[in-house]
Amino acid sequence: MTELPALLPVSEIQKRLFEIFPEGTPNRGYCTREIAAKTVFVMLYAGAMEHSDIFIRPNQVTRMTDAQTKRISVDERFAWAKSSLAKERTEIPGRWYAVDSREPIRDETLRDGFVPTGAVVVKANIPTTSSIPRYALASSFATLFHPKLAGDALAQAIAEWQGENLSASALARIQILGRGAVATAHGVMVVFPNGETRKLVAGPSSIVTKAVVEEFSKRFLARTAVIFLSESRNKVVARDESLAKAIGLAIPADRYLPDILLVDLGPKHPLLVFVEVVATDGPISAPRKQAFLEITRTAGFSDHNVAFVTAYLDRNQSAFKKTVPELAWNSFAWFASEPDHIIVFREGSVDHTSRLSDLL
Predict the structure, then answer these.
(1) Mean pLDDT in order along the chain per 10 residues (360 residues)
(2) Residues 6+ apart with CB under 8 A from 316
(3) How far apart are CA 169 and CA 223, in angstroms?
């Protein structure tokens, strides 16, 4: 009888998934949540591994029970793998998930999570509507869950798998977010465009602030200067009154200001850039944008010479998903983990709407 892989508890599988798919991995949540760990467990339990000619269906994950996980002999595992493919005729006491939970397993955990990263292989030439089992763990991925693999050996195996399977852009995001996590523990040093430095308190907002000043400005502005920078919405870290006066901007001491106010001195007319850093909330919303415009209009700036940016750590994090409905039209969203890219929230009108071909 075919040998089956050794088993890890679901909790240990999930712990390893968090290490295999670190911050910055596309659709990380789909690959690390409990339902993902249970999907891996069922594949290991049934022996659904690349080159084994054994595959599973998503509904088999829903049929597993805690009681069944304790039946670990080869005969018991093969018997369950066979019976779990049969048509359901009676209720399964203690089943892990309801019948309709197979769809998020199929569409999120497998299709959008494990399959694109190479963690799971799909049996070829199976019609989309077919109920034939089609999913199995990739061999290299399955080895990461061997109970005897631990410590430095596990870390090395995970690093090798990441290098071979995660895309270059995904690896770059992981590295950026990883560096940010280290910086958080010791405070964050920001280097201003003029070479001056400021140390910010530890925290995710400071990581994004550093990225805005050091990375965003280099990529999207020609000749940057920092007019204003605050920390945690109350402590002013930098305030350049002389520069503001030189470009004709009066910074009201009694008015709410953004987290960061940059100016691009490259264009013929200076471009003011209001930036809100979002770790949890507080994006450039329509009311906030209007409040900032009142300041710039009073100073005589045309609206065409003012830009608004909401800066996040990563678009996969909850901060972006939570606040994106609030973002003002004619503003931008930028992510420290993907510094070369920017999202434009372009405002149109009935009389002036471009076709997609004009926006490409």
Answers:
(1) 85 96 87 96 95 91 95 94 87 88 89 90 80 92 96 95 82 66 66 88 86 94 92 75 85 77 92 91 92 91 95 87 94 93 83 68
(2) 24, 25, 26, 27, 28, 29
(3) 27
- pTM for the predicted model, two decimal places: 0.63
**Strand ranges in the chain using DSSP code E only, listed in sequence order:** 120-122, 135-137, 188-191, 197-200, 224-231, 235-239, 260-264, 271-277, 306-312, 331-335, 342-345
The 8-class DSSP code of residue 327 comes to: B
Contact yes or no for 62/105 (Cβ under 8 A): yes
Would you state the CATH architecture of domain 185-359?
3-Layer(aba) Sandwich (3.40)
Q: Which candidate, 262, 256, 220, 219, places its Cα nearest to that of 238?
A: 262
The tokens of 58 are what?
Answer: 């998503």
Helix (H) or strand (E) holding 37: helix 34-46
> How many CB atoms are located within 10 Å of the residue 96 CB?
20
HSE-up of residue 355 (Cα within 13 Å, Cβ side): 2
Q: Which architecture, in CATH terms, is 10-166?
A: Orthogonal Bundle (1.10)
Nearest CA-CA partner of 183 in 192, 195, 191: 191
Return d(Cα 88, Cα 99) in angstroms, integer.
10
Query: Domain residues of the chain, as ranges?
Result: 10-166, 185-359
Is 10-166's fold the same as 185-359's?
no
